[in-house]
Amino acid sequence: MNKKPENPAAFPNENDANKQYNYIREGMTLRDYFAAAALQGIIANSKNGAGDFDYKLSQVADDCYAFADAMLRMREPIND
Asked: Is the pTM higher than 0.85?
């Protein structure tokens, strides 16, 4: 079975502890956070540091999320 890895919020939840405004904010997911970090590295290492890529931007996004998915999988416990 190929289940999706756990994808929790990247930052602590913010909520209205005294129930004055009745809101909860989850924040970005850990997958999005990892993808953003991968994107920063890819842009920083592009030809001119400003996103001069040899391939399509949609491929850059796919690659960033592939890195993020790999990072999420590595966080899973190893069953020996």
From this structure: no
